[in-house]
User: What shape does this take?
Amino acid sequence: MKQVLCFGDSNTRGYSLYTGRFDYEVRWTGRLNEAMGPEALICEAGLNGRTICFQDPDVPGRNGMEFVKGFMETHKPLALMTVMLGINDARLCYGGKSAEEITANLERMLVDIQAHTCFEGIPTRYLLIAPVPVDARAMEYYDYDEASVQVTRELGRYYEVLAHKLGIGFLDAGTWGVKLDEDGAHFSSAGHGTFARRIIPEIQAVLSAQD
Assistant: This one.
């Protein structure tokens, strides 16, 4: 059975504005796991508030670069690893970073984990997923302003260039029409369904190419 590590933030964890977390069968990772059947095991590694490289001023343990290798070691050997981060890095508490700065930090993470995988001798494939941008409603719930909301909309084009540079797979979830809940930041139940329908064939294609 092939193992797939999905590393991300609250939208990988399946945060729900109303219950704290959507049930397994609602979350896109759960739907993906069910769709893969015995072919693959989907390992969820999502955390609310996770960033690429910043320390949350109020809640510790959100710096993705500090923890990503631990997840890789826990679930290896990995056939595939997906990375979907960057939305939290645009928050004002981290200094109002630009899309270019966020992408530069993400490049450091991806280069580091690729080197780590090569050292371990594991033939892991990588899939960089540009996250679904937040919308204006997020300014009422979280520390975004108009400029930082716009930054989340720009990540897709920067991430695509980065993926090509590193020779890894790329998907832009911001183009998938994923519905957000009323906070304008987190996938709704329907949004998880849309995300799952779009990503399932992509994951299947990557794993099939490894056979």
In short: The chain is about 45% helix and 15% strand. The two ends are 12 Å apart (CA to CA). Residues 49 and 137 are 17 Å apart (CA to CA).
